[in-house]
Amino acid sequence: MSTKYILTNYDDKLISAKYINEECSMLNVCDNEHFIGDIFIGRVENVVKNINACFIQFNEDCKGYYALSENDKHIFLNNKNNKLPNIGDKILVQVKNPPHKTKPHTLTSKIEIPGNFLVLSRDVSNVLVSKKIQSNENAKKLGTMLFSNLEDLNNDIKHELSSAFTNTNTDLSFGFILRSNAKDASFSQIIEEATKLKDIYKDLLRKAIYGLFYTKVYESAPSYISDINHLMYENDFEVITDSEKIYNLIAKETNIDNNKLRLYKDDLLPLYSLYSIKSNITNALKKNVWLKSGAYLVIEETEALTVIDVNSGKFISKKGKDKDLSNYRVNIEAAKEALLQLRLRNISGIIIIDFINMKSEELNLNLLKELRGLAKCDELPTKIVDMTKLGLVEITRTKKGQTLKERMGLNKNE
Description:
Strand order of the largest sheet: 16-17-18-19-21-20
Number of strands: 21
Largest sheet: 6 strands, mixed
Number of helices: 9
Shape: globular
Distance between the termini: 34 Å
């Protein structure tokens, strides 16, 4: 499997695109990432008891939603005699999700600082291993060895900062999550990165306790750096960009081999043209998507859910006993395209697909089986729930950032 990761400017936006065997499988707008992963000193502006949440101003222009039901280990930066946020409190928060339609940013106290092999996390108290490598013996061994060093790493934070946080009613402890990239790592690599992440965490806490409201104490790396770190453990991949600045940043911030990173230069044929970035984005923003069979998908994004309708279009179904089988072949084609479109458009939440009707229960079950197989290939957790009595397939897909349409600044269906 050959993978190419493209970074180029199109329509005054930095676009990242992932191609697997020359087929576009991912599109993202890397500009204006809405502070995702950044950590700020916020001010509690309002506490709304009936929704068990508060609203925190974390930037002079931005206010975020902070769910108390999901955040119980607050990082207060002012003296406190209770454990709950109050109006005026100085509090450390990380931006978890961007604004979505009418909803503001989502904030969290579950600070996470990612590395190549590990994620330092306040949401865990020990060392967890990614589900993808839980059966890997080396990963298990690394997790056990790192856990034996966790107390010392935490004690370093307490030793240097406990006096500054004495009256804040704040627990600064943290744990680690072993990422899938760590399956072939050595312990020296793991402990070196764990120490580095601990020092980053300690430094931002030191800045925070003495900082002013709305100060950014930690800035996350661009999303494409994380994408490339994941790519580096594939056998056949290449990263191509036409920006010298981005080329140098990737070379500095990742451990990518020189032969895997290429700076593209061709004044006659721009990189976005070579890889059809314009047409891929244009097609991923269209309401209708045509299939080779002549059928087409109608994709409707709404506030509550996304509906995908499979229309027969120019496809002429066979009659009689072969009708179900011919419809099944079109539905399989539609299923593959529908899940591809979910990835390209970064559509999440509840998705309903209305396939062409089939009377055969066996073929309907086979369609669900095919969908579940396709869902396993998605980088985001995607669950094929079931097929209703009306023949509608229910799907849920974990949210990660804004949709492509939102990133491109298009709020209305075109």
